[in-house]
Design a protein that fits this description.
Elements (H helix, E strand, L loop, with lengths): L1 H31 L4 H26 L3 H26 L2 E2 L2 H24 L3 E2 L1 H24 L1 H10 L9 H33 L3 H26 L6 H23 L2 E2 L2 H23 L3 E2 L1 H19 L1
Antiparallel strand pairs: 1-4, 2-3
Length: 317
Amino acid sequence: MLLNIVMLIVGLFVLILGGDFLVRGASSIALRAHISPLVVGLTIVAFGTSAPELLISIKAALDGSPDMAMGNVVGSNICNLALVLGITALIGPINVQSDSIKIDWPVTMGSSLLLYFVVKEKEAVIDTFEGIVFLFFIIVYTVYIIRKSRKETKALRAAEETLDVPEPSNNLIKDLIYIAGGCTGLYFGAEWFVGGAQEMASFLGVSERVIGITVLALGTSLPELVTAIVASIKKETDLALGNLMGSNIFNILSILGITSIIQDIHVSEIIIHQDMTVMLGITLLILPLMLYKRRMSRFAGVVLLMTYVIYTYTVIS
């Protein structure tokens, strides 16, 4: 058991480090090619920060553990909007931007509903065709956000400041080493993290769905959690809501899209009827919480945290 926990921790650390290296190398090359920081942030940085979840889902699907692959994504989405957003709002109220209501929430809800109805209508399978459809939608959404931001100078500056795009280097070899190191870290990190999770599920006698929904989801959401807590303490939470919903959109359309193209994902009935339903319910819940006085209050944070605790308890028990 101790060895499994060590594998999980080391695997997660290597995954996060690998994603960071990949972002640094690829972003540097892109910026030196005169691609705007906004485009780099919404593509390379977004992909790099979600690379750990992607590698975990692909590894789990290829290993014949689809419940881990799906549980990782669905659990991460629940974690983002209940645990991470709840803690952020609890530390300090979050002002809700109009784009979060008009764009981010509808796309988040639409992506979640698309996933739900696809698995309901396709005999609980996400196959290559659905994967291509998912990727098409994420490309359309990303292009729309980039074009919209370019038309709004103020929003463009704000977006570029919050995307945390690494500074470009002047050494191509160094950038390539970063990319190679990042890819290597992601590969071995996924091997150790998923392997440790599978062994832990076997040792504890619980289903791989439970491990995916709890351990994997919480582990891959740790960077977002730490970032949100730091932003809350610094009172810089204006874009927190949009960033978390954007992460959920990317998780569904990009991660599940790419994974299902590589390997069909078979979804268990309990994930469809329980976990996806909870994901849809929490996504729906945050709408009135956003609309009330256009801010996520500490009360909203308590509601979201309690929802996450109750849900996690029902999964484990």
